[in-house]
Amino acid sequence: MMKRILPYTLSLCLSLCGNVPAICQEPLEDPPLSPDMITGEGYDEDFDDEEYAGEFYEGSPEEDYLNSDIRNRPFDKKQWEGLVGDLDYSQKTKKRPENKKKKAAAPEEPDNPRPPLKFNAGWLKYVAQGILIVGGAVLLAFIIYRMLGFKGGPRNKRINRQSDIGEINLEKIEENLAETDLERYIRLAVEQGNLPLAVRLYYLAVIQSLSQRQVIRWKKDKTNRHYLAEAAATGFYPEFRALTLVYETTWYGNLDLDREMFDQLQSRFNTFIRDIRQPLTPAPAS
Length: 286
What we know:
The protein is rod-shaped and about 190 Å long. It has a domain at 170-277: Four Helix Bundle (Hemerythrin (Met), subunit A) (Up-down Bundle), CATH 1.20.120. It has helices at residues 2-25, 35-39, 49-53, 61-67, 77-84, 122-147, 170-175, 182-191, 195-212, 224-230, 237-251, 259-277. It starts with a helix and ends in a 9-residue tail after the last helix. It contains twelve helices and no strands. Helix content is 52%, strand content 0%.
């Protein structure tokens, strides 16, 4: 029996002896000892060989999770009660009311905003110049008008002007127009050469005749336009209106009236006054 085992034992020894030089070429060096390794303070008591071995285990995460152990960690009940002691879970929480008012959406700014308008006050200069030019022209025309001696008067002026010529007092004549002998004053004005005053007296004679005929109602404060309105519905209106225009142009417009023109006006006034004073012809009996 020993003879059979001996060859195998020798071969095993030879093989081991052949490997001795290789082992001796790379001697193992122990790691240096640290103070924690000597005192044991760096040793982790929770170190698990199986968990350490898992680092080299190639398996799926699901298998690792299913195969892992459940650890119970300590629970401090007093600390938990101190944290949640003021909370009451028995009542239902109220929902915060929703804000029904939607905030107005801010207007979207255009991609190409318009440039701000710039006020150009340059045109005001031209307006001011135009106003000054027009005002200067009006002022110059007024000065020339006054220098040339034009004296304008209102066409609708009341008859209250007094004459300073001799015994002719227009104010007294107008106050007593119904009883005044106007023909005497007309002859006096013509003799004195005051033809405009004679025309003024002729026009008063027309007013006197129309008032006596009850075509108009005489009143000192009335204007010529009032008398024309009262006579508008009668047959005397056309000639009365024409003579009113002649009188106002002569008296208020300071018309330079010569003797020939006056004679024509005198004939026209006398004809119209006779027509007014003619009695009414009764209508023929049917």
